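Worked Example 4.2. Consider the chain below.
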Amino acid sequence: MTETAQPKRGGKAFHSILEPHFDFIHQQRQRRKTWKEIAKSLLTEKGINVTLYAPYRFYRRKLKRAAKPNWENVENNSEAHPARPIAASSRPQSHPAPLPQPVPFKQPDISTIKKDQFT
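Applying the procedure from the previous section yields the following structure tokens:
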């Protein structure tokens, strides 16, 4: 009887090899180094062989994620971030006001119109 291997789910999340070297990359960028020079210095100084695009993508992704608060990184402080905004009425409405009901059309009575005022 042969068993088939089931794929494992819920393993460890992927972590970049450049994660511990973010400060090094940041310092190099502050010194106005190009991404090609940073990739070469990672190889010579840190022993990490990457393409020239790898530090660029990693650095930009890291800065973008740092700008957005993550639920794991935010401290559990319910006073600083209330579940509902206090002044909810000051926000604009999310949907427009309903239109008024149309008035039913009434056909005018021809016998009451004075015809001499139009000539």
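Residues 19-67 form one domain. The CA atoms of residues 20 and 74 lie 21 Å apart. Compare this with Example 4.1 before moving on.
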